[in-house]
Structure formats: structure tokens, C-alpha cells
């Protein structure tokens, strides 16, 4: 364990977060997502895991270290419910709350159609699969910057 770092973030995930640059995106997905097949097509090229936790717990852990990109409007995305794009399931409400807490303000999740989400995940730096079993527990987050400290 490391002081100040969530124990949910294993060495592989920490390395990926550190390796990502401004504008790089990651996908945090549920257990039903075709994570391994998609992850093989990402920049990292293999699947990362944060097992036995919900999507909201994984998002909170990642955002405890990684800022969201303020230069784009879709730095946080969610997979749309098929046939009901305006529906926001409980799992997505929980992730919305985790994002808002991490950012200290409301940060809307951009809805992304299911197959467009798959393509977006393929273009990501990495895919992190969680233990989330509820449907539509799939999200993308784009890394922002940490400004220099003021003197």
C-alpha cells in the first residue's frame, strides 16, 4: 500500500495512468463488456483490471489521481442504454456522483451510442475492466492536465 493512493489502483493501472498524457482517454467497463478483445486494440494493447469493485468505486479511485480534460466537452462519457438513450441507470447515476465529487462540481456524462462506445474504447489508451455486474457500467474518461504550482 502507498500513502494517499487508493489500494484499488494496482501497479499496472498506476503505470498506465502515469504513462497517459493530456488528451489520452481510458475506458472503465463492466464485466459484460468485451474488454479483452477491445483492449487488444488500444494503445496499451492489453486489458487492465480492478476486480471486485463497482464502476463508481473504480472511477473514484482513478479520478483521485487523474484530472479530467477541461479543453473538451466530452471528457467523461457513458454508454447509452440501447433503445432508451435518455435513460440513466443507477450505475451511471453513481458514477456521475463520483465524477462530481472528484471534480468538485457537476461534470455531465456525455451519452455515447453502444457501437460508437466500442469504437471509442478501441481508440483509448487502455481499458480497465471492473467487477461491475449491472448493465451499462461502461464509461470513458479523458485525462487533463495538472497546472504548475503558483509561487
UniProtKB/TrEMBL annotation:
Q: Does the record carry Isomerase as a key word?
A: yes
For biological process, the GO terms are: fucose metabolic process
Isomerase keyword on record: yes
InterPro entries associated with the record: RbsD-like_sf (IPR023750), RbsD/FucU_mutarotase (IPR050443), RbsD_FucU (IPR007721)
Enumerate the GO terms in the molecular function aspect: D-ribose pyranase activity; fucose binding; L-fucose mutarotase activity
Q: What is its EC number?
A: 5.1.3.29
| Major enzyme class | isomerase
Gene3D superfamilies found in the cross-reference section? RbsD-like domain
Q: Which UniProt keywords apply?
A: Isomerase
Reactions catalysed, as given in the entry = alpha-L-fucose = beta-L-fucose; beta-D-ribopyranose = beta-D-ribofuranose
Q: What is this protein called?
A: L-fucose mutarotase
Amino acid at each position: 500500500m502507498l500513502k494517499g493512493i487508493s489500494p484499488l489502483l494496482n501497479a499496472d493501472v498506476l503505470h498506465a495512468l502515469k504513462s497517459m498524457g493530456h488528451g489520452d482517454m481510458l475506458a472503465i467497463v463492466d464485466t459484460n463488456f468485451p474488454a479483452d478483445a477491445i483492449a487488444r486494440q488500444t494503445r496499451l494493447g492489453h486489458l487492465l483490471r480492478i476486480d471486485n469493485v463497482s464502476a463508481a468505486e473504480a472511477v473514484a479511485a482513478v479520478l483521485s489521481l487523474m484530472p479530467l480534460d477541461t479543453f473538451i466537452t466530452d471528457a467523461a462519457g457513458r454508454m447509452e442504454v440501447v433503445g432508451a438513450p435518455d435513460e440513466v441507470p443507477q450505475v451511471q447515476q453513481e458514477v456521475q456522483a463520483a465524477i462530481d465529487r472528484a471534480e468538485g462540481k457537476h461534470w455531465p456524462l456525455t451519452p455515447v451510442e453502444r457501437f460508437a462506445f466500442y469504437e471509442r474504447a478501441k481508440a483509448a489508451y487502455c481499458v480497465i475492466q471492473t467487477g461491475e455486474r449491472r448493465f451499462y457500467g461502461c464509461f470513458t474518461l479523458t485525462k487533463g492536465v495538472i497546472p504548475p504550482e503558483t509561487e
